[in-house]
Amino acid sequence: MQPFRIDVPEHVLADLRVRLSRTRFTPASDHTRWNAGADPTDLRALVEHWQDGFDWRQVEARLNKYSQYLTEVDGRRVHFVHVKSPRRGALPLVLTHGWPSCFVEMLAVADRLAADFDVVIPSLPGFGYSETPHGPFTGHRIAETWQHLMTTTLGYQRYGAFGGDIGGSVTQWLGALFPASVVGIHMTSGSLTAGIDSSAVTPDERIYLEAEQAYDAQDGGYSAIMRTRPDTIAAALTDSPAGLLAWIADKYRDWSDCEGDLKARWEADDLLTVATLYWATGSIGSSFRPYYDHPHTGPRPPITVPTAITLSHESLMAGFPRSLAERAFPNLRHFARPDRGGHFMAHEEPDYLAEELRTFFRPLT
């Protein structure tokens, strides 16, 4: 385990600025902004700010105020943030981000939890400064990596786990595989309907499951290419920073609780921080591996540990019935349906989410 500081070489930033200055923008395909994807006008403004107004060194200095480390698990490098509580014997929590996010999403929540908990924020394998795993990227494999990180590397005997999206799936695998170590799991999204017997659902549950399928069909263009031809799109996004930013910003707008107005929820520097980390590490292509490797995911064992769900306020979760959660998680102890905070809830609503986590995990210490 080695201390780590982010230090993007100056030549990487200089090359980024040159590439941004040479961006070729496409005309809009639809007169309704964002209807056909990233709006060219909004994208141009973000690209221009990335080139001339965004101060990466200032962001880098802020990120480096957090204690970051590199360690090796199963022969691969894992990057993580470790925020230690001043409270002796504090329960550790591992917080796992999703796609197209990164560890930065969890920092504001970690700040709010540090008085009561030790907080560990790993970068998913293939994201940022964590190396791509050997073999398929599955929730099962990443849960095994996190278990090693928490118990062997950091020496914790018991810990709690939280995540959304891919992080939610990893969190569920932690609860399923390591109930002797994991005191409880908390999710905002991520495979909440995995393993459900669709032949035995109630009418309300069937309505939701059909709506989920319809949403996936409408929203699934990005995932279809990432599942089937990830290297093709990765070649474009690894070479074009504007293309990379469009790919990421489209999802931050569509999945966050912003009612279609990207600027209403996100500062430009928040989006550019995420984009710069992907660009500087060249990791957008490897971040597609969970999609490409999804067919390798096997059946998940039953989850019996205490479970909490705070549903993200996004289209995919609209109408999700509590009965589905109770069917998937027999030890469901907390279920909340807030009216705010989307796919990136930890970043969007850190005060609310921190209180949700504190409420659920404090009795489990």
Automatic annotation (TrEMBL):
Keyword Hydrolase: yes
Domain of life of the source: Bacteria
UniProt feature coiled coil, ranges: none
Residue span(s) of domain Epoxide hydrolase N-terminal: 1-106
UniProt EC number: 3.-.-.-
Matches recorded under SUPFAM superfamilies: alpha/beta-Hydrolases (SSF53474)
Keywords assigned: Aromatic hydrocarbons catabolism, Hydrolase
Gene3D superfamilies: alpha/beta hydrolase
GO molecular function: hydrolase activity
Family statement drawn from the similarity comment of this UniProt entry: Belongs to the peptidase S33 family.
Protein name: Epoxide hydrolase family protein
